[in-house]
Amino acid sequence: MSRPSIYRLLEVPLLYRTLLRIVGAANLKEFHAANASVYNDVDGLVLDVGCGPSLLSPKPRGTLVGLDINFDYLQQFQDIEDSDTKVLVTNGSAFELPFPDDAFDETRCAAVLHHLSDEQAAKALEEMHRVTRPEGRVVIFDFVVPDRRFRYFFAWLVTQLDRGEYVRKRMGLYALYRNSSLKNWEIREFRYSWLELHGTLSTAVLSKTGE
Questions:
Q1: pLDDT reading at 109 higher than 80
Q2: Which has the closest alpha carbon to 163: 27, 81, 40, 52?
Q3: Residue (of 59, 203, 55) closest to 141 by Cα position
Q4: Whole-angstrom Cα distance, residue 45 to residue 47?
Q5: For the chain, first and last CA: distance in Å?
Q6: Domains of the chain, residue spans
Q7: What is the rounded radius of gyration, in angstroms, for the C-alpha atoms of the chain?
Q8: What is the rounded distance in angstroms from the CA atom of residue 163 to the CA atom of residue 169?
Q9: What 8-state DSSP symbol labels residue 169?
Q10: Which end is more exposed in the chain, N or C (fewer Cβ atoms within 10 Å of the end residue's Cβ)?
Q11: What residues form DSSP beta bridges with 138?
Q12: For residue 6, is pLDDT > 50?
């Protein structure tokens, strides 16, 4: 089966979630610790850009808006609604968000940027900035190519086989952040899963003027 054929199969939510469980199985302590250090009692109106079929971060209290280009993913994402979290979904692109300026208290984006070219990723960052209110924050999770290929060979191999065509080295990802209009990034680096994938969880808090 060709790689594009495999990637089309991953558009099926059940298969996608199963693969996530296999790749991310066991030893997720560092992943959960990084999430816990960032997502602490989040409430208000929260946007999840490229939400996929399930939430990769802790649920916020209030309203969570999931955006994705895959309608099947959005149907699955709606199922996470509970008494503390109202869930809305909308179809759309990460680099052309269909929302007004300053609409959200927090904007999240998990494992999306490595699917976007540098130009598209730069646009997505500016769009996330635009729709986040002053004093709100933007939080981005993504994984990166290990600096030491042979020491972390299986983690490196996953980055080469991933359907995202733009898995970046750590400094390449950080250059995108540095060149964006979002400032004062706080970045956490960690390794997670039995494959020791290299993850980054990055937070930019907007000023009172939205800068």
A1: yes
A2: 52
A3: 203
A4: 7
A5: 47
A6: 3-205
A7: 16
A8: 16
A9: B
A10: N
A11: 107, 204
A12: no
- What is the rounded CA–CA span in Å between residue 78 and residue 88? 7
Q: Which of 18, 96, 6, 8 is nearest to 50 (CA)?
A: 96
The two tokens of residue 122 are 């730069």
Query: What is the value of pTM for the model shown?
Result: 0.84
Q: Which long-range contacts (CB under 8 A, 24 or more apart) does 74-81 make?
A: 75/13, 76/13, 76/17, 77/48, 77/51, 77/52, 77/53, 80/54, 80/55
For the chain, give the longest Cα–Cα distance.
52
Tokens of 201: 């969880």
107, pLDDT greater than 90: yes
> Tens digit of pLDDT for each residue in 161-173?
777 789 999 999 9
Domain 3-205 has CATH 3.40.50.150: yes
Quote the tokens at residue 153.
């060979």
151 CB-near residues (< 8 Å, 6+ apart): none
Written as one letter, the residue type at 159 is: T
Separation CA 96–CA 120 (nearest Å): 10
Beta bridge partners of 151: none
pLDDT digits (tens, 9 = 90+) for 72-93: 999 999 999 998 899 999 999 9
